[in-house]
Amino acid sequence: MLPSQLSKSKPLVESDTDLEPNSYSLQKFKLYETGAKFYLIGRDESRTRWRVLMIDRSEPAELNIYEDPAVYSSQTCNDLLNRLSEGNHATGGLKFVTKAYGIVGFVKFMEPYYIILVTRRKLIGKVCGHAIYGIEESQLLTVPHASVQTDVARSKDEYRYKKLFSSIDLSKDFFYSYTYRIMWSLQKNSCLGDLEKMPYDDMFVWNTFLTHGIRQQLKSLHWTVALVHGFFKQVHLSTCGNLNFMVTLIARQSSHFAGTRYLKRGVNDKGRVANDVETEQIVHIEPWEDHGQISSVVQHRGSIPLFWSQETSILSPKPDIILHKHDPTYEATRLHFQNLALRYGNPIIVLNLAKTVEKKPRETILCLEFENAVTFLNHVLPKANHVKFIQWDFHLFAKRTSGNVLEMLGSIAAD
């Protein structure tokens, strides 16, 4: 059955072209299959709109996706499924595959495409009334039907890549929202209108690449979820005076220049740093939904924005730091601070926690070069864009029994 045939000879609730693109979101799905197609049926939370997505299964190495422009009611959607089942009776009918809560994306290794689905979710909190979910289970399904798959799809290399990709545990440290841009801070969400689309190209969206194909083909964001990799925790607290409030801690890890410790250090040519994390603390005083007081504090951390690396070694728990001096004008460092200014505004304050005293110079090498970089840039940048550099040897400070970390941080913040 062709995509155009689905919208004929049936009563429609409305057409998607008549709706604002962000006026609703699909949150629950059911996946069905025939020998020729996958049919993903999605509905909104209010059970008033049903949509149909078709994924072609007849091509061994191509991804072809079609979205029916019609918006169905519950009854007309069931009628459609019955017709699909009857129309495919000779080839096995229409079979139910799984329930789902969104598409994480599509991936291809040697030949066939695979679809990654969220099959179980859990509510982990709410921000301004918007539900935030974590993933309990996900599923990787082969798109092409077995009858069209070639030997490449069954090769050892294909199996190895698939197994390696499947080792990513989406049930740990990933979260998303259908209606709130959780990859943005509360301030940024408040400044931009509700009609702004879900920003899949944001640096804190983990599955930008995985969703690129479906977003390009459909120009629609109803079917996918934008995952953030990091940390989300929400607790309800109260004071002795019966003041009830909620504390939310969110950490968002950048997908740019990402990698494991020691293997990714410093900055790249585009000014992106390793271990780039934005942390946000939100305090919300009861009532939660309306008229409550809410505040948000955001801080950013990342690897020192210089070209440096470390050689991993089992024999050395503290690998030597290698500084690569091939950026005499600190262009990559400048781009890094420019990006921070675009995201957060000026002034940029650097609190450098690297060691200043060592028997064998390691962190001190970076510490000195970082200060030189900031001094150099402040000479060429406009005064309004100057970077404030504060050196605080946290390791040395922590050794002092009389040192009060919170008092010290308070004095820095008040300065």
Content of β-strand: 25-35%
Average of per-residue pLDDT values: 88
Radius of gyration over all CA atoms, rounded: 26 Å
Question: In sequence order, what are the helices and strands, one letter per element?
Answer: HEEEEEEHEEEEHEHHEEEEEEHEHEHH
Tally of individual helices: 9
Q: Care to count the β-strands?
A: 19
* Termini Cα gap: 68 Å
Query: Pairing-aware structural class of the strands and helices?
Result: alpha+beta
Strand order of the largest sheet: 8-9-10-11-12-13-14-15
Largest sheet: 8 strands, antiparallel
Percentage of residues in helical conformation: 10-25%
Shape: globular
Q: pLDDT below 50 for ≥5 consecutive residues: which ranges? A: 1-13
Which SSEs are present, and which pair or pack?
Elements: H1 3-6, E1 14-15, E2 26-33, E3 37-44, E4 50-56, E5 65-67, E6 70-71, H2 74-87, E7 95-100, E8 103-108, E9 113-127, E10 130-142, H3 156-166, E11 174-176, H4 186-191, H5 212-218, E12 228-238, E13 244-253, E14 277-285, E15 294-301, E16 308-310, E17 321-323, H6 331-344, E18 348-352, H7 363-380, E19 387-391, H8 394-399, H9 405-414
Parallel strand pairs: 18-19
Antiparallel strand pairs: 1-6, 2-3, 2-7, 3-4, 4-5, 8-9, 9-10, 10-11, 11-12, 12-13, 13-14, 14-15, 16-17
